[in-house]
Amino acid sequence: MEIWVNAVRWCIKRIPRGPMASFSDLPPPSPKFHFIVDITLSTKERSADVSSVISVLITQKTATAVAYVKRGKGLVRVNGSPIELLEPEILKFKVYEPILLLGQERFANVDIRIRVKGGGHTSQVYAIRQALAKGIVAFYQKFVDEAAKKEIKDILVHYDRSLLVADPRRCEPKKFGGPGARARYQKSYR
Q: What family name appears in the similarity comment (predicted)?
């Protein structure tokens, strides 16, 4: 922001003033401010790209996953690393379920970036899995066609409804008078 303000001040100082002034009297622009034009162009290009990106927010227990889906080459990344490197190894198949159900060809022209934080390993994996499924459904709804979206949705729901429907269960807080949320301490009458 400060660079932009300095550039504007520099330009204002060089505006010709007076009755006989013309813009042909302006000195050539300083080379140090050429990059400002590039910055403004790149932000305009970025804003055009933003309209072609779909974001989906998923919460599973205390884990939160955000999936960004856009047209691309078929890359699927979780927290910046490829999905193949996801840990723990035992739960990796759960994340692959939407891809295996729908087939690689449906993911071939789509790039998916997923950011996940909070919770434990299992709830993160289930949040990623749901973000993948809901992200691809939302992408097909907005950019492809309704029939393809319905077909994808039917396949996913027929296999496992939790791929598209959130699980609202949360851990109930402990209360006084007992060791847990509902259990009470033992009571003796004599």
A: Belongs to the universal ribosomal protein uS9 family.
Q: What's the whole-number average pLDDT of the chain?
A: 83
Instruction: Name which of 146, 158, 152 is nearest 132 in CA terms.
Output: 152
CA distance 59 to 49: 26
Give the three-class secondary structure for 122: helix
* Cα dihedral 141, 68, 62, 92 sign: positive
Whether the Cβ atoms of residue 141 and residue 69 lie closer than 8 Å to each other: no
pTM of the model: 0.71
* pLDDT, tens digit (0-9, with 9 covering 90-100), for 16-68: 565 555 555 555 555 554 444 444 445 555 554 567 899 999 999 999 999 99
The domains of the chain are located at: 2-16+26-48, 54-163
Residue 180: CB partners within 8 Å, gap ≥ 6?
A: 174
**Domain 54-163 CATH (choose: 3.30.230.10, 3.20.10.10, 3.30.360.10, 3.40.980.10):** 3.30.230.10
- With 0-12 / 13-18 / 19 or more C-beta atoms within 10 angstroms meaning exposed / middle / buried, residue 164 is middle
